[in-house]
């Protein structure tokens, strides 16, 4: 009976496909106002895997593997599936805040020749095209990675048109990535997180429901709990809004399913994850040092991916802090309350069993 259950679980547990070559490219609006060609995305995870292979080959499992140094202070990943209607509004709020708080890292003239450069006295690599040099030491520099998740509308055009209307230097901070087919919100977020260059990285939903200026609160709280390795996760939370008008006015079915899911979370997740009041809010911040412990080991690409992120953080003792944020209901949600809730319950059960029985491993 147990072997049969294990076999069935092995067959149903999702294994994400590797990214296609075209999905590891991006386009942006260059400083001269023209649309760039398809440029290679820098990928800290690829370099991380190379280093891990070298360590295994040399039989040095205790060697500490470092992630590539940050080039900007803040990276924002926006998963977007057919979001031409809402994306522009969200980007207006987000980019306004990023530019006000973090500005642009100063650009280098030598980047224009298309070669890889290294600033004298700095440890971070500087890439050409739409990339910007390191501003993370001064808390400056930002980027936005809009990940179009197999969109069939004008999501990509909307993002690029928004960038074109910004100041020239700021326009090139917005990178647009196209996934060949829809992978789910989790798949889009994970893909974007593999390519961030920031000292901190946050993902935020394209609907703009979360109050973006609360990013400052997440950074402050994350820095308070960072461990000696610089690892921390800050979870934007709407738990304090339960009982508020925004939640009370929801349908009975939606509130019932929400409470049922929270009960399931408490039953199926590890202790620390089970105490998080809102695991599903699309506004989570990661320090760069925490990413190699989470992103390479992700499997969930649907709505339940947030929970796997938190479970992985807990498994390696990464500090996680829950931070109340402002939030509003936004029309146009693609969530089917009934079927997606059932899918999340199924996904959670499979996820917990796959990790518990060793089908998924952090190696």
Task: Summarize this structure briefly.
The protein contains 12 helices and 11 strands. It is an alpha/beta fold.
Protein model, in words:
With 363 residues, this protein is of the alpha/beta class. Helix content is 36%, strand content 15%. The strands form three sheets. The chain has a seven-stranded mixed sheet, with helices on both faces. Helix 3 (87-102) runs parallel beside helix 4 and helix 9 (252-268) packs parallel to helix 12 (337-356). The longest helix has 20 residues, at 337-356. It is globular, with a radius of gyration of 20 Å. Mean pLDDT is 84; it is low at 58-63 and 106-135.
What's the topology here?
Layout: H1 2-12, E1 25-26, E2 39-40, H2 44-57, E3 72-80, H3 87-102, E4 117-118, E5 125-126, E6 142-149, H4 155-164, H5 168-171, E7 174-179, H6 185-193, E8 198-204, H7 215-225, E9 233-237, H8 245-248, H9 252-268, H10 271-274, E10 283-287, H11 305-315, E11 320-324, H12 337-356
Parallel strand pairs: 3-6, 3-8, 6-7, 9-11
Antiparallel strand pairs: 1-2, 4-5, 8-10, 9-10
Mean pLDDT comes to 84
What are the segments in which pLDDT stays under 50 over at least 5 consecutive residues? 58-63, 106-135
Question: Compute the gyration radius: what is it?
Answer: 20 Å
Strand content: 5-15%
Neighbour order of strands in the largest sheet: 7-6-3-8-10-9-11
What descriptors fit this protein?
globular, 11 strands, about 375 residues, seven-stranded mixed beta sheet, two-stranded antiparallel sheet, alpha/beta, 12 helices
């Amino acid at each position: 009976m147990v072997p049969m259950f294990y076999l069935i679980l092995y067959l149903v547990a999702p294994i994400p496909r590797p990214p296609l070559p075209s999905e590891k490219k991006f386009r942006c609006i260059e400083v001269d106002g023209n649309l760039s060609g398809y440029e290679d995305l820098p990928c800290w995870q690829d370099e991380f895997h190379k280093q891990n292979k070298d360590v295994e080959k040399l039989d040095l499992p205790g060697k500490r593997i470092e992630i590539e140094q940050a080039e900007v202070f803040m990276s924002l990943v926006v998963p977007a599936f057919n979001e031409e209607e809402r994306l522009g509004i969200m980007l207006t709020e987000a980019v306004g805040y990023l530019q006000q708080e973090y500005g642009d890292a100063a650009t280098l003239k030598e980047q224009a020749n298309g070669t890889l450069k290294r600033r004298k006295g700095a440890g971070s690599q500087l890439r050409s095209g739409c990339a910007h040099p390191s501003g993370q030491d001064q808390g400056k520099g930002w980027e936005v990675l809009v990940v179009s998740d197999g969109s069939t509308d004008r999501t990509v055009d909307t993002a690029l048109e928004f960038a074109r209307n910004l100041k020239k230097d700021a326009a090139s901070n917005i990178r647009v990535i196209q996934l060949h087919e829809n992978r789910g919100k989790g798949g889009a977020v994970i893909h974007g997180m593999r390519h961030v260059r920031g000292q901190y990285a946050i993902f935020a939903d394209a609907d703009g429901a979360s109050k973006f200026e609360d990013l400052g609160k997440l950074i402050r709280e994350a820095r308070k709990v960072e461990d000696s390795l610089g690892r921390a996760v800050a979870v934007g939370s709407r738990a304090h809004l339960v009982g508020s008008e925004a939640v009370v006015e929801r349908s009975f079915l939606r509130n019932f399913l929400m409470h049922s899911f929270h009960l399931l979370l408490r039953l199926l997740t590890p202790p620390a994850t089970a105490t998080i009041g809102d695991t599903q809010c699309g506004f989570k911040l990661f320090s760069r040092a925490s990413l190699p412990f989470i992103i390479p080991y992700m499997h969930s690409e649907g709505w339940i991916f947030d929970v796997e992120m938190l479970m992985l953080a807990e498994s390696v003792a990464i500090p996680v802090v829950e931070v109340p944020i402002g939030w509003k209901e936004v029309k146009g949600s693609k969530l089917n309350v009934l079927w997606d809730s059932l899918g999340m319950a199924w996904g959670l059960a499979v996820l917990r069993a796959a990790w518990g029985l060793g089908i998924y491993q952090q190696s």
